[in-house]
Amino acid sequence: MTSTTNVTPALRTATVVARRTAWLAGALFWTAFAVLEGVNHGWLAGALALLFLILPDLTFLVALDEAPRMAKGQLAPRAVPYYNAMHRALVPLGLLAAYAAQPYFSWPPAFAALCGWLAHISYDRAFGYGLRTKEGFQRD
Length: 140
What we know:
Layout: H1 9-41, H2 43-54, H3 80-86, H4 90-101, H5 108-126
C-alpha cells in the first residue's frame, strides 16, 4: 500500500485527467440519453430533462442573502447540505435503479429527468467541481 505523499505530481496530474475524462464521457452519455428521451417522448420529457440539468445549481439560491459575505469560491454553509445532496451521483443512480426494478410505474419523463440530473453531476465533476465542505469550500 502506498502513501499519498509518495505520489509524484505527474502521476497525480494523470490521475486527475483520467478521472475528469471519464466524467466527461459519462456527461456526454447522459446528455445524449436525455435528448433521446426528449425526442422520443415529447416536450414534457425534454422539459424535465432540461429542468433537472439546471436544478442542482439552484441550491445556491437557498442562501443567496449570505453570498456577499462569503469568500471567493465559498458557498454559504446554510446551502451546503442542499448542494451536496443534489450533487451526489448515487442519489439519481439509486432512483434509476428503483425506476428500472419496479414494474408498476414507468413514466419516461421521470427517466429523462434523471438522465439530465446525472448529466449535470457528470459535467460538474469533469470541470473540477465537486462536493463542498461544511464551510462551503470545494473538497479536494
